[in-house]
Amino acid sequence: MKKEELFKIYNDCIMPTYTKTPLVFIKGKGSYLFDIHNRKYLDFFPGWGVGNLGHCHPKVMTAVRDQISKLIFVANNFYHIPQAKLAKELHFWVNFPSRVFFCNSGAEANEAAIKFSRKFGNGRFEIITFRNSFHGRTLGALAATGQDKYKEGFSPLPEGFKTVPFNNLQAVEDALTDKTVAIMLELIQGEGGINVATQDFAKGLRKICDDKKLLLIVDEVQTGIGRTGLMFAWQHYGITPDIITLAKSLAGGLPIGVMIVKKEISQTLGPGSHASTFGGGPVICKAALAVLKAIHKEKLLNKAKMAGEYLITGLSSLKERFPVISDIRGKGLMIGVQLKVEGKAVVECCMEKGLLINCTHDKVLRLMPALSVSKKEIDRALSILGEALEKTEPGA
Ligand SMILES: Cc1ncc(COP(=O)(O)O)c(C=O)c1O
Question: Which of left, alpha, beta for 354 (phi over 0: left; psi -120 to 50: alpha)?
Fold first, then answer.
């Protein structure tokens, strides 16, 4: 199919809910994507946070092929082995007594956490969330999201969410009422511009939750599965959440969502109280097991940490060369480059030169390469980014 024909079908037949970049990809391998003209792109934002293992990891492909040839679907009123194995493996990584609920996306995992909190609250229903957070597009997750631009036109949203400034414990204290049941946050806000929670803030939230008997919900949809150099971002903070939500990269590119809940409260949702037809299907679970195994076997947590440090060092050199960069922040391989001007032109110039990156919150370049990214690939990305900053002369 020719590009023009493809674009026409998209125009005619697909809802225009995404801002499209005119690239058609046909193949992916590790840190690279290949387009319809067989042009190679170095992908430093694989799948919007889905590609922690890069594109088409061979172990994931084998696991999927193997499972798909045996059994594709099992309804959740029966048992199957991949789901049990994945639950056990997640339990190992979380390292505290817990139970999981499987679904298909980040929004659904957060929706489950919101429903869980309401049931747990038994009359208490308010959830405190944070400015610039992002929790998904379903009505509940959207109501929790602390950015008005995503909410325009969708009123009325479910009530019971209070959004307060991030990294501000006093604001949280001030928002508490006798109806508060939970505090929900990303420890590094992804869509919000790579804003990192401080140690004091995270520890303070845990203390408030303990003192007031609230649930601490940590949305690890983007930060999870090794992205920050540890399996989960909360592990940087010496705290334990009551609920964790996962999605994006867990199944190596296939759709998955998970809510993990502390075991002692997990009976809150009993039979019939929540469900998902496709949640935790055998193919997805086998893919996720392959992802977790690869992270362990290929020592990807340590690699992400080292690669992140290397990338930040290179970006710091760029900051010295280009005063338009005002800040570099993040953990592991979840990195934001704050510009003083809009970053769209830089992203487009990088793309023309064969590097894919993202810009969020207008002025923050977001870099989240595969955890296995090599020094050579980082050097190449830095060189292209430098050329793009020079060429576009943002702010000049
Ligand atoms: C932190 C966070 N939570 C939730 C979501 C929603 O995930 P999904 O698009 O899988 O529904 C996203 C998506 O970007 C996210 O970054």
Answer: left
Using an 8 Å Cβ cutoff, are 31 and 367 in contact? Answer: no
The preferred substitution site among 48, 222, 364 for testing ligand 1, maximizing ligand atoms within 8 Å of CB, is 222
Which residues in the chain show pLDDT less than 70? 394-396
What are the CA-CA distances from residue 19 to residues 149, 305, 315 (Å)? 15, 32, 28
Q: For 305-355, write each residue's pLDDT tens digit.
A: 999 999 999 999 999 999 999 999 999 999 999 999 999 999 999 999 999
Chain centroid to CA 180: how far? 26
Q: How far is the CA of 368 from the centre of ligand 1 (A)?
A: 15
pLDDT at residue number 345? 96
Enumerate the β-bridge partners of residue 29.
32
Is residue 289 within 8 A of residue 83, CB to CB? The reply is no
Report the C-alpha gap between 27 and 148 in whole angstroms: 36
Half-sphere exposure of 14 (CA within 13 A, CB side): 11
Which residues fall within 8 angstroms of residue 106, CB to CB, at 6 or more apart?
A: 135, 136, 141, 219, 221, 222, 245, 246, 247, 248, 257
- Fold category of 59-297 in CATH: Aspartate Aminotransferase; domain 2 (3.40.640)
Tell whether omega for the bond before 46 is within 30 degrees of 0, i.e. cis. no
Q: Which residues line ligand 1 (CB under 6 A)?
A: 105-107, 110, 134-136, 186, 190-191, 219, 221-222, 247
Instruction: Tell me the domain boundaries of the chain.
Output: 59-297
Please report the pLDDT score of residue 396 as a whole number: 46
The whole-number pLDDT of residue 395 equals 52
